[in-house]
Specification:
Blueprint lengths: L12 E5 L4 H11 L3 E6 L19 E5 L7 H10 L3 E4 L5 H5 L3 H7 L4 E6 L14 H7 L19 H26 L3 E6 H8 L1 H8 L19 E5 L5 E5 L3 H11 L14 H12 L4 H8 L6 E3 L10 H6 L2 E4 L2 E4 L23 H7 L11
Parallel strand pairs: 1-2, 1-4, 2-3, 4-5, 5-6
Antiparallel strand pairs: 7-8, 8-9, 10-11
């Protein structure tokens, strides 16, 4: 595979200390953008690991094996850090320091290094040293409590809101901002990306609406949380679902006309009648299949779309036309995003097998000591 990609981060070198969840995804995003990402895998792998052959969060990367608990393991990582622009790790606070690859150790070798730290609770605070996963992080931020029906437990949004939106994306934003600062000043720094911080940040608009009296602090009672009958999902006659987001008046009018409930339109501005309106909308959607409703609403401004499964999504006509998904190495997967006019990105390498690129990295990064870790 290529040493570096052709995206906007071509020429940027990143060291990723292997972990699970948001760290690998953040490093994948950097790799998708063209960075030369070298993942430092541990012999024997880690917990909750996906089969390396299918772990697309390791695409576009290279991998070397280093045992950080061995006598010379830390020195090999520091050799890589000395030649890198960015290092990303997801250990609990203090672990990297105990292993000899913490920020002070790395900055002693490379003062320009951007040291990205990915955790759930952050580097400090009462819970900083405790275990956790996405669901706990989004729970305490208020985000989880917003999601789901009012008469049911909060709905779990996979690990998208915490790990990837509140975690990975904020780490990448922080790393890129710190990289810009390092290039301007010659000074690296530590980026403390905590999932609780990022997820809380995602709720900024909702907090503003709540302060203004436009959002109730409970599930299923608001414009964007399923409480509104023209912003939600409805079952079709074949047991599938349609998603409705007809918020603006002109879109709502087109929606009610196509749905055939124009006489119910006045209920839109009367929350006291939302229950009645929801029943009318639900009854109409139950009269046709998802495909029939999709055909009716397709190409209109009614803001209605079919709810597709993961396997169905790549075949949606719009997504297919944009090549939103791609097939590489026999795995259907999302293509890199966003898109760039001058520095296009692409999937150029499949999931990096642990230790598979030791020789090429040792040569390209001039770290011959890595060859002692070949498997």
């Amino acid at each position: 595979m290529a040493v570096t990609g052709n995206g906007p981060l071509a020429g940027v070198r990143v060291v990723e200390l292997a972990g699970i969840g948001p760290g690998p995804f953040a490093a994948m995003l950097l790799a998708d953008l063209g960075a030369d990402v070298v993942r430092v895998d541990r012999p024997g792998g880690g917990g909750l690991a996906v089969d390396p052959a299918y772990d697309v969060t390791n695409r576009n990367k290279r991998s070397v094996l280093v045992d950080l608990k061995s006598g010379d393991g830390p020195a090999r990582v520091l050799d890589l850090a000395a030649r890198a622009d960015v290092l990303v790790e997801g250990f609990r606070p203090g672990v990297a320091e105990r292993l000899g690859v913490g920020p002070a150790d790395c900055h002693a070798r490379n003062p320009r290094l951007v040291y990205g730290r990915m955790t759930g609770w952050g580097q400090e605070g009462p819970l900083a040293h405790t275990a956790g996963h996405d669901i706990a992080y989004i729970a305490v931020t208020g985000a989880l409590g917003m999601i789901g029906a009012p008469d049911a437990p909060p709905a779990v949004p996979a690990n998208l809101v915490g790990d990837y939106a509140g975690g990975s994306l904020y780490l990448v934003i922080g790393v890129l901002a710190a990289l810009q600062h390092a290039r301007a000043t010659g000074a690296g720094q530590v980026v403390d990306a905590a999932i609780v911080d990022g997820t809380a940040h995602l709720t900024a608009m909702i907090h503003g609406m709540m302060a203004a009296g436009g959002w109730q602090d409970r599930r299923g009672a608001n414009l964007l949380d399923g409480g509104c009958p023209f912003y939600g999902t409805y079952e079709t006659s074949d047991g599938r679902y349609m998603a409705v987001g007809a918020l603006e008046q002109q879109f709502y009018e087109q929606f009610t006309e196509l749905l055939g409930i124009e006489d119910q339109a006045p209920a839109r501005k009367d929350p006291a009648r939302w229950g009645e309106l929801r029943e009318s909308v639900a009854a109409r959607f139950k009269t046709r299949t998802r495909e029939e409703w999709t055909a009716l609403f397709e190409g209109t401004d009614a803001c209605v779309a079919p709810v597709l499964s993961l396997r169905e999504a790549p075949h949606h006509p719009h997504l297919a036309a944009r090549s939103t998904f791609t097939d590489f190495g026999g795995i259907t997967q999302p293509a890199p995003a966003p898109r760039f006019s001058a520095t296009p990105t692409a999937v150029t390498g499949g999931p990096a097998r642990p230790g598979a690129h030791t020789r090429s990295v040792a040569a390209d990064w001039d770290v011959p000591a890595l060859l002692g870790e070949e498997s």
